[in-house]
Amino acid sequence: MIRAILISIGEELLTGTVVNTNAATLSEELLALGIPVRAHLTVGDVREEIQETVRQALQEFDLVLITGGLGPTEDDRTTESVAAALGIPLELHPESLERIRAIFEYLGRTMMPNNERQAYLPRGAEILANNRGTAPGFMVAVGRRTVCCLPGVPSELQPMFQQELKPRLLQRYPAKELLELVTYRTFGLPESEVDTLLRGIGQEFSFAYWGLRARYPETHVRFLIRASDSRELEERKARVRERVRHLLGEFIFGEGKEELEKVVGDSLRNRGLKLAVAESCTGGLVADRITNILGSSDYFDRGVVVYSHSAKTDLLGVPVGLIQQYGSVSGPVAEAMARGILARSQADLGLAITGIAGPSGGSEEKPVGTVHVALADKTKVEEKKYLFRGTRDQIKRMSSEVALDRVRRYLLK
Q1: Nearest Cα to 396, choosing from 368, 375, 374?
Q2: Does 211 lie in the same domain as 160?
Q3: In sequence order, which ranges of 120-257 are alpha helices (DSSP H)?
Q4: Percentage with pLDDT > 90 across the chain
Q5: Burial class (CB in 10 A: 0-12, 13-18, 19+), 18
Q6: Do residue 152 and residue 280 come from a single domain?
């Protein structure tokens, strides 16, 4: 079994200024290739520390994957440090230099002299082209071991891994069996309850490793499925899918990387329906999530943020007396908001959210986290009250998730 280590370079990672999402992304990608990551290390921008870490890693691991520190500035020291650790000199790579120059010319900017540093790479290294930035990556074979360096910027790292490094790793470390990571995304059940419902499933499928990942406010169920060939892999995936969907039912909203907003959008498009949204406590978060999906104009008509009492009355026609009697955070007002946005739009469904996101503004009767969500169609409106806990951002996120899930479940009927 190939053993891998991930080494992340950067003072910003050690100080907590930047969250290291690359480690999670690459660990998951490598696992799907049959290459388990056995250690994560984070090192600052210090030449000696980087060199020593690389030397030690090569004594124990088959694959040493390093991210970060490939930029043009003085504190970007990964390339020179790795070359020193391997005892390989740096040399100018003309093709990389031309690629960097072309980027600056395309942007109409003057290339700085320090950008040329990025084209000096370890002699004999296999270059990994960067189609999103100026820093090339590289791969060096050290006997049967391999050192790979990727940029730390996620938008550059991820396509470089997929397009450049992944095919090379598959060639160098061919899998003895097929592996595929399958993810089922759930919402509406706590992680402990999902675990209880799936208890014993590992014994049912000896060909798969499974586990849970809490990604607020969702819970993801992940299976790493093994098979000897593609036909067997598809059969095993189908068996797992049937069983998991039987156990979790409508709490599963998607598979793989499907976001809830995309699932809702696809359902609206398939039904030929349009949605309009009126938001108070979420401040436009639902509309933002919906419109982040390409082609959302097919099914999203409009969204309004009605934060004040007068906005609810002026833009949605919510009666002043209703707000005075029940308060703006109430079921009757949420229903009136849903009916109001539906009547003032070209949509088939009107979704409304009003609540108290905190951290202040709550009362004994209506504590922070009180949220009302209403969904209206041409014949009826259904409203429900929720009580969420957490920070202001968490309450807003949960409110948007619940609202989108209400639309999803409506469309399942």
Answers
A1: 368
A2: no
A3: 154-160, 166-172, 191-197, 201-204, 230-248
A4: 95
A5: middle
A6: no
What residues contact residue 271 under an 8 Å CB cut-off, 6+ apart?
A: 411
| Strands of the 252-255 sheet, one edge to the other | 208-215, 218-227, 178-186, 252-255
**In angstroms, how far is CA 247 from the centroid of its own chain?**
25
Instruction: Point out the domain boundary residue: 172, 203, 222.
Output: 172
Pairing of strands 208-215, 137-142: unpaired
| C-beta of residue 306 within 8 angstroms of C-beta of residue 317 | no
pTM over 0.85: no
Q: Tell me how far apart the alpha carbons of residues 388 and 401 are, in angstroms, rounded to a whole number.
A: 12
The residue-averaged pLDDT of 104-124 equals 95
Q: Quick one: which H or E segment has residue 381?
A: strand 381-387
Name the residue with tokens 């982040």.
Answer: 292
Place of tokens 């100026």: 134
Tokens of 196: 């209880």
Please give the Cα distance from 328 to 372 (Å, whole number). Answer: 10
Return the pLDDT at 265. Answer: 98
Q: Could you list the residue range(s) of the whole structural domain that residue 249 is in?
A: 178-255
The count of residues in the chain is 413
Closest CA to 172 of 136, 137, 148: 148
Q: Round to whole Å and give the CA distance between 285 and 44.
A: 37
Query: Hunting for tokens 């209403």 — which residue is that?
Result: 374
Tokens linked to 163: 């397009």
Q: Hey, which residues does 128 pair with through a beta bridge?
A: 137
Query: Which of helix, strand or coil describes residue 86?
Result: helix
> What contacts 143, CB < 8 A, 6 or more positions away?
none
Mind listing the pLDDT tens digit for each residue in 276-307? 999 999 999 999 999 999 999 999 999 999 99
Domain final residue pick, 172, 202, 218: 172
- What is the three-class DSSP state of 215? strand
Question: For residues 58 and 145, is the Cβ–Cβ distance under 8 A?
Answer: yes
Q: At what angle do helices 78-86 and 47-60 cross, to 10 degrees?
A: 50
Return the structure tokens found at 174. Answer: 């061919």
**Rg of the Cα trace of the chain?**
26
DSSP element (H, E) containing 253: strand 252-255
* CATH number of the domain to which 245 belongs: 3.30.70.2860
Q: What is the DSSP string of 274-313?
A: -EEEEESTTTTHHHHHHHTSTTGGGTEEEEEE--SHHHHH
